[in-house]
Amino acid sequence: MSWRRIAHLDMDAFYASVELLRRPELRGCPVAIGGHGEPSRRGVVTTATYEARASGIRSGMALRRAAELCPECVFLPVDFAEYRRYSRRFKAAIATLTDRIEDRGIDEVYIDLSAVPGIRVERGVPVARDLQRRVHEATGLGCSIGLAPNKLLAKIASELHKPGGITAIDEYDIAAVIWPLPVRRINGIGPKADLRLEELGIRTIGALAAAPPAMLIAHFGRSFGQWMHEAAHGRDQRPIVTASEPVSMSRETTFEHDLHLRRDWQALAACLAELCRELAGDLHRRGYAGRTIGVKARYDDFRIVTRDHTLALATDDAATMRRVAFECLSRVPAARRLRLLGVRVGGLSRGAPPRQADAAGVVAAPSLAAAWQGELPFSGPENP
């Protein structure tokens, strides 16, 4: 493949930074964003300022636990409309330099800078500084940027010197910079694979690179084992994807108090109906319809159960989604109380669906369980 310079741009503590623009008096204070902004109520931290992180507060942590770790922490509710507005602004600022942008979520993008003038000067650092300037002028916010020959290394590099860092990595830096890092720094190696690797005595990326490919394949399968070997050596040929279609959409909520499927049926039914209405609105606004409708329930012991149906025809109709979702919920075992309920529509397609979709027969469906296992809440943590 021809020479490439890929950047991974990651906004620094994005939600918290947006909030500090509105509340500059909180700068320098420990601040956490999550739920209703009240640690006495149920919810999780979506992000926190670096001052709060110094006290051990992390994304995904219960608000109550965060308050215990840092009693002086200021808690603020999430405001996704505002975060999306700033997300559009920083991405528009990047687009003034290049349109070779891969959107990876509300607070991060990959950028192909290979054809940008000056990118070969000082390994592209001056161009990265220009990007930081454009983003700051458009939003007042800071970001960290990793520069590398591919997406895998750029992602790792952007996390090395937060906040406000610029880190350039080339192939000859891999042994000194990448190999001493823990294997979890490789995007795609999750907690389960990390634990399995640790059991094999592999804790660093360098140790993973030194492991025989046959051994990795034996323990993780041919595809994943071979990929880990390549990733540990910094090899990644994935292109920048400038346009993509979503495969599913979802809405979910965490309850203030755990609810029982039978004793609290009315409250659960009202919640599910509202989630279906909101999700139907999401589909309609974006011009999608979907065939597979499912529900997700998280018990009070954090186990997750999913149930789903696939219709013969796609739909974006709230009433149709509600009927199918209630049927799915009726198949969820009433084993324990529920702390979370969600609804998801998969098998998305563009265009207005025929309205008789709700009368269509049900056909065999691939389960949504695999896609939902371990998934963070809809309003869950951003990347730190």
Describe the structure.
This protein starts with 5 loop residues before the first strand and ends in a 12-residue tail after the last helix. It is α+β, with helices and mostly antiparallel strands. Residues 354-384 have low confidence and may be disordered. It has helices at residues 14-22, 50-53, 63-69, 80-95, 125-139, 151-158, 174-178, 191-199, 205-210, 213-220, 222-232, 265-286, 318-330, 369-372, and strands at 6-11, 31-33, 47-48, 74-76, 101-103, 108-112, 143-148, 166-168, 248-259, 288-299, 304-315, 338-350, 362-363.
Task: Please count the helical segments.
Answer: 14
Radius of gyration: 23 Å
Instruction: Bin the helical content.
Output: 25-40%
Report, as a whole number of angstroms, the end-to-end distance.
32 Å
Q: Uncertain segments of ≥5 residues (pLDDT<50)?
A: 354-384
Tell how many strands the DSSP assignment holds: 13
Following the backbone from N to C, one meets helices and strands in this order, namely EHEEHHEHEEHEHEHHHHHEHEEHEEH
The biggest sheet amounts to: 5 strands, mixed
How does the helix and strand content classify structurally? alpha+beta
What share of residues are in beta strands? 15-25%
Enumerate the strands of the largest sheet in spatial order, edge to edge or round the barrel.
5-6-1-7-8
Average pLDDT confidence is 88
Shape: globular
